[in-house]
Design brief:
Membrane topology: Multi-pass membrane protein
Number of helices: 26
Pfam families: MMPL
Distance between the termini: 38 Å
Subcellular location: Cell membrane
Keywords: Cell membrane, Membrane, Transmembrane, Transmembrane helix
Organism: Dehalogenimonas sp. 4OHTPN
Number of strands: 10
Largest sheet: 4 strands, antiparallel
Strand order of the largest sheet: 2-5-1-6
Radius of gyration: 33 Å
Structural class: alpha+beta
């Protein structure tokens, strides 16, 4: 491998102009690709589009609409809520929005009162006067129970706008804007109204993601500038310390260009890629720059410095890159699409940053130093300065840790075992709404809505029949409603279906004849039927509503109950459970079982990759992998006691930290082997390795910490801030593992091997 990299170093020296020109052309292609980037916030980012769960949900969405926009009207008191002028204003909003493109149905106070007037006066009009209005809405001064769906308390009214299936984000945003405009034009007295709902959140998501990405990029750049300025002391003028950051910016452009060309969207997970790549990429660039600087300090010529740095550090970083990519490749095992995309872009990004460091950073360094000297064979001036504070500290640390292998390894192992035991007790967050800051005004409105409505839709039962309005089918649906309300272990607050609508219109019981059923259906407004029955009467929707805040286990139990009740439908009828509750269960399963499997696969892939790269040396592969694998247990200790839940991002921690941390162990091991090949004893070789490469490893670790640290400033997305905090701690653990645990293992093993060989020779 060294021979190949020596030839590569010669190529970079002789063809540096060609290499830089080709890199610039690739940047232009990447910019074009980056312009094709899009955002994605829907279910398809969490559930595989090939799964039956997604197909059922999509069919339900196409026919009944899963996107809803809610208007929440806050009144100062019941008198304002039942004021005819205010009701007229709300009804006006309903009528305006019913004409918007993509709206399937609108159900609100105006709709409810028009329905009541249709039964009283035969025409769906608003009450003509205040007395009639109060007679419909009130019973002895209190809201009637049948009005509670539209007026959950004496201070709130709700309008539910259901979008057609397959509506675009632009259509939802247009309806949200139209709703806000209508509210602004309404003449309310003692009422304030706002627009909320999950669809409103998702419509706002792209703006929030763009703002957070801009903040994270700016902060990560600032942190890199500060870290490199303070820690990374190299020859030349001061700004030379920031050259690795410039190289990584180019590498990041390549990565985002590939995202665009491959049609990989920006999601709540992949939006974290750029600050992470900045941290990881600066890491690789620092290693190349540091080794070139080390060779130059020895007094080598410019050509010798560039060739020797590529020859010595190139293979080590390549092995580290391959091992890291193998760790990241474990993310492909996840059933969650945005986690798989995260893994793919991480691999593309780190490879791009490696190539940029090799083919742009080194040629730039070479060109600069070559112009500075009269000829390429003139030796660069030696740097006679003494070792820096980092080198001196590492030189003192090395002998101390080498003398205490038993204590260090025992402590590391104990915390690993504790973490493995605690891992299963860490909670998993599957509610995508909780990935967004609950302090945002739109989230406060959304949470108010959940509390006011007295429940949330747990499941939807999609019923398919040749005619879902047949008396037999309606009777089965009504019986299902009754069983769910009376027999379910998990409390069910309300069940809505077309059977319930017909029964209510007929006086609480279903009519006994099909003719009467058809007559009642003809009188039910389309807006009332749209979310419960398709126009061809083939599909019907049964909505199961429960109290808010159910655990995933409660939802799982309720789903099993519903499945049991659906086991014996009438002949020719099929029914499937779908909706947000099913999506939550599926995501929980993906983030729990998939997470453990990803971590184990990551460890296995890294070990097997190193086993091959180290020429089938199982001992070296184990020594490089074991210290980093320990960090997974340490991380669980931090998450458990820090109250941090597993999310779609923190579920990637195992594979991610293995991929990041193994680089440090490989660099340390290979530098140690380099010193051993020069004839140094184990302790002396490790001291030299820690002193020489330790500065670069620490700088690399700090830049990675800085990259993840930028995630802490994505305040609108707790999913990112939690991930950033834990990963920063884990990278710190990786440094401790590489500079404390790994050296003790390596030296202890080598000393033991020498004793065995000495004993064998003596015997």
């Amino acid at each position: 491998m060294n021979g190949f990299f020596r030839k590569l170093g010669l190529f970079i020296e002789l063809r540096r102009g060609l290499v830089i020109a080709a890199s610039v052309l690739l940047v232009l292609a990447a910019v074009v690709g980056a312009s094709r980037l899009s955002f994605a916030t829907g279910i398809e980012t969490m559930i595989s589009t090939d799964s039956q769960v997604y197909r059922d949900y999509q069919e339900f969405n196409d026919n009944f609409g899963a996107e809803t926009v809610i208007i929440l009207a806050r009144a100062e008191g019941l008198a304002n809520l039942v004021d005819l002028d205010n009701i007229t204003a709300v009804d006006s909003i309903e009528q305006q929005l019913s004409k918007e493109a993509g709206v399937l149905s609108i159900v609100g106070p105006g709709f409810a009162l028009r329905q009541a007037m249709a039964q009283i006066a035969g025409a769906p009009l608003l009450p003509p006067d205040q007395a009639t209005l109060e007679a419909i809405m009130l019973d002895q001064g209190a809201l009637r129970s049948e009005m509670k769906h539209f007026f959950p308390t004496d201070n709130f009214g709700i309008v539910v706008i259901t979008m057609e299936g397959g509506t675009s984000l632009e259509q939802v945003s247009a309806v949200v804007d139209a709703a806000r405009g209508a509210i602004g034009r309404a003449s309310f007295n003692g009422i304030e109204a706002s627009v909320t709902g999950a669809s409103v959140i998702f419509a706002k998501m792209e703006e929030l993601m763009t703002q957070s990405m801009s903040t994270m990029i700016g902060i990560s750049m600032l942190l890199m500038l500060m870290i490199l300025a303070v820690v990374f002391a190299v020859r030349g003028f001061f700004a030379w310390r920031w050259l690795p950051l410039g190289a990584v910016i180019i590498g990041s452009i390549y990565a985002f260009g590939m995202m665009g060309w491959l049609s990989v969207p920006i999601t709540m997970v992949t939006m974290a890629i750029l600050p992470i790549l900045i941290g990881l990429g600066v890491d690789y660039a620092v290693q190349f720059h540091n080794r070139y600087d080390e060779e130059a300090r020895r007094g080598e010529t410019v050509a010798e410095a560039i060739i020797d740095s590529v020859t010595h550090i190139g293979p080590a970083i390549l092995i580290a890159i391959i091992a890291a990519c193998l760790g990241f490749a474990a993310l492909f095992l996840s059933p969650v699409p945005m986690i798989r995309q995260f893994g793919m872009i991480l691999i593309i990004g780190v490879v791009a940053c490696y190539l940029v460091s090799l083919f742009i950073l080194l040629p730039v360094l070479y060109s600069h130093d070559r112009r500075k000297k009269a000829a390429s064979k003139t030796a660069l001036p030696k740097d006679g300065s003494e070792a820096g504070i980092v080198e001196r500290a590492l030189a003192k640390l090395a002998p101390r840790i080498i003398r205490n292998p038993v204590l260090i390894i025992a402590v590391a192992a104990v915390f690993t075992v504790i973490g493995i035991g605690l891992d299963s007790r860490i909670e998993t967050e599957t509610d995508e709404n909780k990935y967004i800051s609950q302090d945002l005004p739109l989230m406060k409105d959304f949470n108010d809505l959940a509390a006011l409505s007295g429940g949330s839709t747990a499941f939807n039962v999609m019923v398919r029949a040749d005619d879902a309005t047949r008396l037999e089918v309606l009777g089965w649906m009504q019986a299902l409603e009754g069983r769910l309300l009376s027999q379910s272990v998990v409390p069910v607050l309300r069940v809505d279906s077309i059977a319930g609508v017909i029964a209510q219109a007929a006086g609480e019981n279903l009519p006994s004849s099909q003719e009467t059923i058809d007559q009642i259906l003809g009188l039910v407004p389309e807006l009332a039927k749209a979310n419960l029955l398709t126009s061809d009467k083939i599909l019907a929707n049964i909505t199961v509503m429960t109290a808010p805040g159910l655990s995933t286990e409660d939802l799982r139990g309720l789903r099993e109950t519903v499945d049991t009740y659906l086991s014996s439908p009438p002949a020719g009828v099929t029914a499937v459970v779908t909706g947000q509750g099913v999506i939550g269960i599926e995501l929980m399963d993906s983030l729990t079982t998939g997470r453990v499997e990803m971590t184990l696969l990551g460890i296995a892939l890294v070990f097997l990759g190193l086993f091959v790269l180290f020429k089938f040396n199982a001992v070296k592969a184990s020594i490089a992998t074991l210290p980093i694998a320990m960090i997974i247990g340490w991380s669980s200790v931090v998450m458990y006691f820090g109250g941090i839940k597993y999310t779609a991002l923190t579920a990637t921690l195992g594979s991610l930290i293995i991929g990041i941390g193994v680089e440090f162990t490989i660099l340390m091991m290979m530098r140690y082997q380099e010193e051993r090949q020069k004839g140094a004893a184990p302790a002396a070789a490790m001291t030299t390795a820690m002193t020489k490469i330790g500065r670069a490893v620490i700088t690399s670790g700090l830049t990675v910490v800085g990259g993840f640290g930028a995630l802490l400033f994505a305040r609108d997305f707790p999913i990112l801030t939690d991930f950033g905090a834990v990963t920063m701690i884990n990278v710190g653990f990786a440094l401790v593992s590489s500079l404390v645990v790994l050296p003790t293992i390596i030296v202890a093993f080598d000393l033991r091997k020498e004793r065995i060989l000495a004993k064998a020779a003596a015997g």
